[in-house]
What we know:
- With 326 residues, the chain is an alpha+beta fold.
- The chain has two domains: 1-47, no CATH class; 55-318, no CATH class.
- The protein is 55% helix and 9% strand.
- Helix 2 runs antiparallel to helix 8 (201-209).
Amino acid sequence: MADLETLGGEGGETIRCRYCGQLNNVRTQTGQARCGRCRLLLSEEPHKKFAHLDKYSYIHPLDSRALAALRNIPGIDTALKKLLEVTGESAIRVIFTASAVKVTPKQCPDLYYKLQVACTTLGVDMPELFVQQNPIVNAFTGGVKKPLIVLHSQLIERLNDEEVLAVIAHEVGHIHAEHVLYITAARLIEAVTNAALAASPVAALITQIVSLTMRSALLAWARRAELSCDRAALLVTQDPDVIGRTMMKLCGGTFASKIDYDQFLAQARDFQKNYDQKALDRFWADIINAGLTHPFPVWRVAEIMSWVESGEYARVLSGEPASAAA
Ligand SMILES: [Zn+2]
Ligand SMILES: [Zn+2]
């Protein structure tokens, strides 16, 4: 149980935040109090931090298969490294330092401490975190030598504190799972498939350096990599419904009060029942063409719920080695 002491004479109590470790003085009978530092709900439930989390304990089999196919393409690593050299990893940092708010212990501190919670839980060095004005609910990770995470402003407006933690944890998952080279290249390619950038010099460079085969294998993998990082996010929030509700908001794009979560879960179960791998594979191509980076929230929530139901999530959380079928 968490540290819970009653303060003599003040009618309140001290609760140590299970996520960030901050000591909070709370008055009794205030309902659900939040931590003054990370703003996550205070509770006496434990929060597990992993000492040595093996990425293979949570990597989704569709991710591993797509990654194996990607790695089989001759010259892919050399091509992607060259692409990032030419486009300039440092340029990414300069762009965000110039145009987005950098999160620090003094700037959007609750986001800073949520990032710290995700990093200490998964065992990852803190990357830089930025918030950028953008109406699309999204977030991404970029950079290989020194990864950084960018959260769109709209995401913070729409999600509650636990859901924001889930998104940050998903992005930290990309770093923990060592996705950064491939994911940065994928994001770059996605960015230039947008009409506005299609005629840019970067688009020409990509076509020059990265073959069509490489590009489609990379984008096919990038979507499946999301499934692994959703699992990493669950290992941080340690509440499947937080992941489910986050997906629901990404999916519906509207305020949660107007969408029924149980109906959304039923929809996900329905989807799982009629799931057709081949049909979905054909669909990926259209999704890639449409330039969507995080498609199929319903599919993703169905996947995360079946990981929970398989018992694998509980096994990883308890620190037991995952089964080979995980
Ligand atoms: Zn806290
Ligand atoms: Zn992702």
